[in-house]
Fold each of these.
Amino acid sequence: MKFIQVLLIIATFGVATAFAQGPPPAKVVVTPISQKEIAENQPFIGLLYYDRVSHVSAEVSGLVKTIHVRAGDRVKEGSPLLAIDTEILAKEIALGKTRVAQIDLRISHAEKNYKRLEELYAKEGVSERDYDDALYLYQDSLKEKQAAEDGLATLLIKKRKSVISAPFAGVILSKEVDNGDWVQPGKELLSIGSSTDLFVRVPVAETLMQYVHLGDQVQVTINAFQKQTQGIIKDVAPVADPKTKNIFLKVRIPSMLKVAANMSATVFVPTSSKRKLSIIPRDALIKFQGKDFVYSVKDGKAAIMPVNIVTFLGSEIGADNPYFVTGMPVVIEGNERLRPDQPVTIAGEK
């Protein structure tokens, strides 16, 4: 009985000692803070759109035989979009080729007759009128062949244009035609947006234009699926909103899948002149009571510090807290379960 009591005392003492020592050191990965001259920015909501849109129409009339695309399909430049039936046109082309062959026979005959009369005329064996008639028939048959070949070439152009191809690589925005429809020249059949001309149109206050420069890179987030990408400010709309006085920026973004015109995107637009900010990876950020913090390592323990984010830089943020200095380590892995003053062991640095 006394032996059991001794074991219980030892166990109780061990537990009490463990609690007194606190949690074991946590293994973490850190990275050093850097500093750069960067402008502050703020998020503004804009809309996606294709800056280059082609409204595809037919150049020849006819019955739609085949449609190769649907709205939303992505196509390459030169890909066939639809084909117009050419059965009647094929017959006309065959007839045109036969007509050219017939004229070739007449040319051959007229040329022989003309050369024969030319020799006789030189010897005064035929009249000048007969010679002129032979020359006229020969030259007229040549002109007739040229006209027939021009007509055949026109038919061949119509056949080529009966297959409508994509003018550039892009996405099909709308389809206004179906198999069996009769189309006329000029009628819009499809619209296609250039995949290399995807933009965000974002309104900003006119007072911010002093900080905006064409060619600046800005962070863009596609709100539908929180996809982050880099955009470039390419242009500024020449007309401001008459009520709000907002100016519309045109921000080009890379081509991407599963986006649609008029989807929303968040653009982080510069709102100040450049100043020195501390650059911290987003992986270092943790949320506590709705505010942003990071953990550093001081004297072998986790030191929690609030972060005042003034600019977003893709996978990084810029902060203006004065206590952040170049080279200060911040925890980027293992920070989710850390507690203030918890002992830590640095397992690596990135």
Note: The chain has a mean pLDDT of 90.
Amino acid sequence: MTVLHMHNALQRIRPDVRAMQAYHVQPSAGLLKMDAMENPFSLPPQLQQALAAHLAQQPLNRYPGERLPLLHQALADYVDLPKGYGLMLGNGSDELISLVSLACAQPGAKVLAPMPGFVMYAMSAQLQGLEFIGVDLLPDFSLDMPAMLAAIAQHRPAITYLSYPNNPTATLWEEAQVQAVIDAVAEVGGLVVMDEAYQPFASRTWLERMRTQPERNRHVLLMRTLSKFGLAGVRLGYLLGEQALVAEFDKVRPPYNISVLNAETALFALQHAPIFAEQAAIVRQQREVLIASLQAMPGVQQVWPSEANMVLLRVPDAARVQTGMRTRGVLIKNVSAMHPLLANCLRLTVGSEAENAQMVNALKESLNDE
């Protein structure tokens, strides 16, 4: 292919896509990986062996299908799915976000979310041709209620995302404020997607509100993932809500989006849910120890409360500290460029006791670098 032919071929790609940057995953070989909020614990050896034997028996020559209803039922039992609700599977939350955008991509449709927030809300909106409206949080990362309500009234968004707890701030917003946003979206005929990716580490879930106040939350879809449950490598998310609503989104789902290996691993894990619950409890305990260590550390300017398996902090020079920690073998996330409110902020994953100790030591030494 000549240079001219290549140029012509590239012109077939949308200009906004050509202007985008691909999602970047930091190389982590040889490093303590504390940048992606992964569960620090692997399966116990006996369960690893049992899972391997189970997966070895699966018919990989067949498309997935017959056992997927069992996974639906297992997840429904796990969350105690309310009567009249449906459940839809996705290849991680990312695919579910894309499918919601795809189904709602009518001319003039808009997506709204508090900012800073999860980057996929804006990215999926752009890729599906929807306008994205970001509403800045307050400096303490709480909801700016006047701004949120005004934006909803002005833009009448088709989709409003509420990350509960929020990524990257780890904030769990006040229930009354969240309900007020949901009520405002109802007034303009929109949908709310409650993203509970970090629910295993949070003190409450919006699902309880959906149970106790169903009329006020009929237009709410609740999204979760097994990534923070402890299966980030399995890529399995699920969306639940009123059956009639979920059924519409299920129409745009690829028929074989969940592989046999994904489904069987998830089924196996749900059969051993207490083990993962114990792991989440350890992470929650270690989170408080980590926060206390960070608050007492000279050079750390601010540490925010957390309801997730991550902690956000501000340092004098986030780029320098990130580089220093990487040099010392610890990979963390510099979120400074995501939003002005995150200037010089770092996001740390909460790991095991040993991992956290190594991370804290690397942070302390990096803060002292000249």
Note: The mean pLDDT is 94.
Amino acid sequence: MHKSSIGFSKNEEFLPDFFDEFNSKERLRQLFLDLSSSLVKDYYSFSKYEQKNLVKYSLENIFKYKINSLKIFSYIKTFKKQNMYFKFCLHSTLIINNYFHKQNKINIFASSKLLPLAKIISTCFINNKLEIFFDKNLLFHEFVLNRVKKLHKNKTVLDNGDSICVIKNDAAPLKIYTSWKDINVKDLNIKNELSTAINSIKQSEFKQIYLVYPKMKDFSRHIKIKVEELENTTYEIKVIPYSLRSIIRKNKGQ
């Protein structure tokens, strides 16, 4: 599995190395559950209670639990008087039977109309085994995006895929580039990101650029970057540590 991806395949887990306060396998599982839930919340999500209490188990067993927990909810459409109405979905039924009864006879494709149980099975039950992987850069980008939206509710926040833009009428616009990379403050390895920042300053209205990375033990303060070729330009480039600790804190005391 590529080092930029995190997740699991059967009983083998591919988690990030320990960093910051994510210093145990349990906390790294919690990190994965929280980040992936926010990215694919239309398919599944793990509550704070589930995150806290399930992380002692393997990711494979956690997803088995999640699938089984949805069985009692997936078929009921609504209640009317004393009659129970059921929603039948052929594709959902085929997917569910394929998982529980190993009826792997045809290829079944996911649909936005699938029932919740079928959605999660179609997402993480592949080639008759449970597995799911996400690009950790995408997970980190989504985390930062959601946090920026909460911090700048009175501003326009745009997700451009490769960057996040924060725009306000009475302030200079800000562009944020995110990357899940270990930052060594004594030897910054950000040549490609810095090149992108410089080009953005030269070619767009964005003169304030933040290069955002996960906060590490030895990377806890922002670093201002000076660029010789921009010395006659008004600009600001900062390397910013972004903490993921809120994922741990919000589950304490649950």
Note: The CA atoms of residues 37 and 45 lie 4 Å apart.
